[in-house]
Amino acid sequence: MNTQATTAAPINSSMRWVRWANLAFMLYVLLVAVSMVSSGFKWSVGEQAKTLFEFASHPVAGLMIGLVATSLIQSSSTVTSIIVGLVAGGLPVETAIPMVMGANIGTTVTNTLVSLGHARCKDEFRRAFESATVHDFFNLLAVAIFLPLEMMFGILEKISSWLVSPMMGAGDMSMKGLNFMKPLTKPAVEIVKGPLEALGNMGGVILIFIGIALIFVAITAMGKLMRSLMVGRAREILKSAIGHGPVHGIASGTVVTVLVQSSSTTTSLMVPLVGTGVLKVRDVYPFTLGANIGTCITALLAATAISGDNAIFALQIALVHLSFNILATLFIFGTPVLRELPLKAAFYLSELASKNKAAVAGYLGLVFVAIPGSILAFTA
Hints:
Blueprint: H1 2-45, H2 49-52, H3 59-73, H4 76-88, H5 93-106, H6 109-115, H7 122-153, H8 155-164, H9 175-178, H10 182-196, H11 201-241, H12 246-260, H13 263-275, H14 281-294, H15 297-303, H16 311-334, H17 336-355, H18 358-379
């Protein structure tokens, strides 16, 4: 028995090291993939980037693009990483900001789908659906407040510009001086780019799609690896996170989401716990807000892969994502009247859905399909 015990530990330890090595490799793949999107965008459209995205120049259209893309891909981390690459390739920051906001809304559809697993029991489903949609309504309220403010005053653009301003000077504080990732990512990008050069501008388009596919693969793999490596630690944080006050809940939600690299995973964990009556919606509410903040880590990591003149703007849009989620949490959760609105809206909709399941289909179809589709069709 002792021999078995002593031989099992090294195997577990070696497997853990293999997973950490795979995680490091997938992070490298993510950085290379974002560089591919950036390089391919510059290559295929050059100075015509602004013209290419004229259909998204209206903030509401940009918001819907981010919403629809995230609803389809089911990962705000993937969409924001792609946006970072596009900004590095020439997409204007002001055009990208509403897309980032839309990604926040689109990622919430996962929770709603998870809540359908409780549909057989009316009371369980009501609680689960309420837990799922409180995240939706918070993000919808955040966009309803901050998108008009951004359109009128450009507050997120100004805040993020101020945050990156120390890196825009000359000398060692410049973004060029801080870019230590270029020597690591450039060889891999060139290997893929080389055979495509004979295709002209089409090669740039292909490079973008390869980059997007690799971003999706890397983030999916990173999420699985992080969950396997951190499941015990994340569980411990999860157990101690609920019921110890809103600040503790927000901080714990941030940490757990950084550990598992997916806000959808973090918030979806809460749905069955609320559905079965283990937790209350009001208790998990702050935790989901922390998940919004924690998911910003992926875009910040992606921004470190960017080189060239637009590197500073790639970092800026990643900081826009972080600033938006922090400001929304401080303003909405810090204002008692606003804090209650997502809870009340989620309660009302869950009561309606528990009586008539068609309300669920109507809600999903309206928020994630009909409204975005009609706006995009109108602005196209």
